[in-house]
Amino acid sequence: MQNGVMKAWLESSHLAGANATYVEDLYELYLSDPELVNEEWRHVFDDLPVVSEAVVEQPHSRVRDYFRRLAKETTHLSATVSDPDVDAKQVKVLQLINAYRFRGHQHANLDPLGLWQQDRVSDLDPEFHNLTADDFDQDFNVGSFAIGQETMKLSEIFNALKKTYCGSIGAEYMHITDTDEKRWIQQRLESVVGKGTFTKEEKINFLDELTAAEGLERYLGAKFPGAKRFSLEGGDALIPMVKELIRHAGTNGVREVVVGMAHRGRLNMLVNVLGKKPQDLFDEFAGKHDETWGTGDVKYHQGFSADFATPGGDVHLALAFNPSHLEIVNPVVMGSVRARQDRLGDKDGSLVLPITIHGDSAVAGQGVVAETFNMSQARGYRVGGTVRIVVNNQIGFTTSNPNDTRSTQYCTDIAKMVQAPIFHVNADDPEAVAFVTRIAMDFRNTFKRDVVIDLVCYRRHGHNEADEPNATQPLMYQKIKKHPTPRKLYADALTDEGTVDLETATGLINEYRDALDHGECVVKEWRPMKLHSVDWAPYLGHDWNEEWPNTIEQPRLLELAQRVCQHPDSHKLQSRVQKLYNDRQAMIVGDKPVDWGMAEILAYATLVDENKRIRITGQDSGRGTFFHRHAVLHNQADASTYVPLANIHDKQGSFQVFDSVLSEEAVLAFEYGYATAEPGGLTVWEAQFGDFANGAQVVIDQFISSGEQKWGRMCGLTMLLPHGYEGQGPEHSSARLERYLQLCAEQNMQVVIPSTPAQVYHMLRRQVMRPMRRPLIVMSPKSLLRHPLCVSTMDELSDGNFQPAIGEIDDLDSKQVKRVVLCSGKVYYDLLEQRRKNEQVDVAIVRIEQIYPFPKEDVEAALANYQHVSDFVWCQEEPQNQGAWYSSQHNFRAALPKGAELNYAGRPASASPAVGYMSVHLKQQKALVDAALTID
Q1: CA distance 36 to 42
Q2: What is the pLDDT of residues 466-488, one digit of tens each?
């Protein structure tokens, strides 16, 4: 439609005729990038009447009148097109510049092996733009081409474009909509014709770092032949790249850097960047290990921490531990970075930098990468931008090639979803690598957004060193066998230019080998750790039963209750929310019992009152999926928000609650990372429905349940998983309790099913106030949020404590009891109501609130009055092959009186967690309750 507007104007303007093509081409340039046309024309096009795309037939009279007036009132435009042929050529030159900005990367020299079959891009040929050899000696205006001159010969422009966009760097940034960001990148690339300048000392340093990268791999290959090490060889430039990132970050004020990466090159990073002692690594290869902690993990999953000297001061480095599920570490790193930033008061990411290092197949193939990109600018998850490096060895995992692993030209195309700039760089050109690294770091610092570096390299060996790559990639590996190493290529280049001599280059090799032989740290920038801001010392060496401060004086509790119920008078609440807050006021004065939502809010209030930090995320967590929390109040007049828990008093701890992106895997991994870097506070992830955690099972399996045993990484993350059978079908009933119990061992985490508001209050406080730090898995309620029997008193909050097991609450004569029913969660209230309805006095009901670690002593105490009973039943809502029965019945039996029997009452085994029909659900529920209460 806009082109139709242009034609309508040209038909009526004095600039029609020979000038029409020129103006149309100029307008096309303006549409692609307003910066390509000069300021006068830009103002003309900016002032064009806006045309609605929804109108099928747009009248052009307004446009024609506008340009007729413009033609009468201005003379400078007609002067600029006095020679149509010359001006048409000028536009073509600008189009050529634009083509290189958009597509120059497709002709860049990116593949060290020269195997890429690149399609020729016709837009990059001057002839495509009707520019001939005769035009090459003509002077043209360069437009916005940031070369530092207003006019140049076409030959000079063409050569500068090729050097800038088709050398060892291929820049993709024209997909970005922000003009300032594009202009910034253009200035950085075009002003130096795509090539950085480095001092002699910097070049020798790059060579030294390449020598170290290659030297370690060769040393390990000779000393431990055939051992898996996931060699970096071919991508050696990663080491100088990461060190340059850290140096540049430190110079610009960054104080902490958190790195996440998979296997390839990890051992090299540990030794040559973080400063792990080579001897320690050699001992691991030799099978020596310290048996004082956990089960351990393989070498190429290990993390490390150190301080690193930069020109701007020391920087603390942390390499995150990583399982074989490669890309899952990325959101873990983001979460750790966000926690560090929050603790330092770093609002925009200036002090803490995340770096993630990806594989080419993994970055395109694993969905958590897209989830993490999507989180990058979300309010609850942004970290001021991440520098993302892809070690692109062009082969994927074992035998794959790009045609099998993705559907896009580049593995990095996924980054375009968040308009991140992408810099492809040939890993055999270390100076281009360093140049791009500085640009990427500066872009991140300037715009606080993600940036991607695609380090195009190769893999000298197979997927691991025992693999035989020639079996599936014969041509590539014939080429690799003959290809000089990156260190050799750069040493030769520096020798040829006279920067170093052969003796110096050889000396670097010998010095590094000698340092490895000595086994001590080989990183000259390494410093003893002083800067890390995470102090886990207070949380080490504690057990479950340790005393912890719990009592809150009731006057203080009631004062906090008043404060969390207050909001500005101008903040108009929705009617249902207003009623909820009115009910909470009634709870404070004792007119109503305390419900679940109020108890939970009071737990948070008491914690922030003691200056503890609280972070809660999840889908709908601000209000609560089931409309019970309402920690965030939405003004019905202007949609502004108010958070009472964040406004208790000036010296309180931070309270943050965020509605998360619609993801489980990346979000839960983020919160795990946050909790590992924030031991002093409460970090909560809440599933919208408990079974949605299925989408994050890799986080649960490989981090939450096993991170302490594998890596010694403690974590106090709390997971709230709504669970309960209310006839809502198979996807909204079970939080898959059985899966967590199956993962429980060695006191690795807690699994709790609280059944009263007081229990959730004490459970949340215990998770923070007790010095033990282990994950807490909570089967949280749905219907119990408003159940008339599921209430507590203020006394139970102020003076009580968490009860791992709760005995019979009705006044039964224990001598008349013939059966004891053990249960957990919502089914307790179904049993209680039916027993009261039946007026039974011969069945006692005991709740087990903590399933793991199993509270044997507490359960025995609850059963103390029933030592004469031999008939015990475990009752659950879940099918027999699910829930706690299979995983925990041995624990239940261990707490029973001698000679007692334990039987099962519940749904039969089922492939599905729940039925989909309400009538069937009710029939099943009645049957299991009757089976538990009926004594044969």
Answers
A1: 9
A2: 677 888 888 888 898 999 999 99
